[in-house]
Write a structure and sequence with these properties.
Length: 269
């Protein structure tokens, strides 16, 4: 990794195993990965050629959703769990460009993301950003720490992009979403992307199997029906649960290529 970026200070103990945050960064064209991440990332790409398109579409979806929430929806607080390594157009940059007073809390449990978190903290002077090194398996601990920056009596956008797929048990994943959304008041939003086998993507099954045998953490695809359960009790915004490449606020961009990743936004009534 040191050839491509500043050493993070302390070498993470997982450098001999490809890890999702770094491989995702590799697929996105970043520079914060080790050789093992590149090797595994390339092998997955050889099996599942559209994976880079999935990664790029996921980030584009983040931009569309956050711009809409900070703009039209008037949301000023964002809790982005499973942040990933800093890249272009992180949540605070998108939100604070629209509304400089926006407050953003980032959460990830990857030591490499923690080492690079400073780039996520350089927000607008009028707003605030914070980074919490925490595990999504413990949503209450995340909420307790996030309360130092976010006011949970005001609407919050809870952002879970590409992370519930690392919570293997669907019931636990659903409970995590419920705990987070229960803490947020009416007018809050859930923003979510999730890989699926229902939207095509040649080689996806084999690539996920390869990932689970060679990298961390293990990944789980879900059906549209399973993803819909995460939104129970919430009002799905149009166009509903669609390929994240096609999601636009209020409509589906039919000219965009479908990628094997659902994306959706919902409002808490
Ligand atoms: C596929 S990346 C998505 C990054 C970013 N949200 C995006 O959409 O571009 C998933 C991120 O979730 C993080 N992650 C995975 N399991 C986690 C857990 N149990 N707790 C916190 N973060 C986790 C990984 O470290 C990684 O940075």
């Amino acid at each position: 990794m040191s050839e491509r970026s500043d050493p993070p200070g302390e070498t993470p103990p997982v450098a001999h195993v490809a890890h999702n945050a770094r491989v995702w960064n590799y697929w996105l064209g970043g520079k914060d990965y080790y050789d093992i991440d590149q090797q595994v990332g390339d092998h997955v790409t050889s099996m599942f050629p559209s994976i880079r398109e999935v990664a790029r579409a996921d980030r584009t979806f983040l931009g569309h959703a956050v711009r809409f929430l900070a703009g039209e929806a008037g949301v000023r607080q964002f809790l982005d769990i499973g942040t990933g390594l800093p890249t272009v157009e992180n949540t605070h940059q998108v939100a604070q460009r629209v509304a400089p007073t926006s407050r953003i809390v980032y959460v990830d449990n990857d030591p490499t993301v923690l080492a690079h978190a400073r780039a996520l903290l350089a927000g607008s002077p009028e707003g605030e950003t914070d980074y919490i090194d925490a595990d999504a398996h413990q949503p209450q601990a995340i909420l307790d720490a996030a309360a130092d920056t976010l006011d949970f009596t005001e609407p919050v956008a809870v952002i879970l992009l590409g992370i519930l797929n690392f919570i293997a048990d669907t019931r636990e994943a659903t409970e995590i979403v419920e705990t987070l959304m229960a803490a947020a008041p009416s007018g809050s939003y859930l923003v979510l992307t999730h890989p699926t086998l229902e939207l095509g993507g040649d080689g996806n099954v084999e690539a996920m199997r390869f990932w689970n045998e060679n990298a961390a953490p293990p990944i789980t695809a879900r059906t549209g029906a399973e993803v819909a359960r995460f939104f129970q009790g919430l009002e799905l915004l149009e166009p509903g649960i669609v390929s994240c490449a096609r999601w636009r606020p209020g409509y589906e961009a039919e000219d965009e290529k479908t990628v094997a990743q659902f994306g959706a936004v919902a409002r808490k009534p």
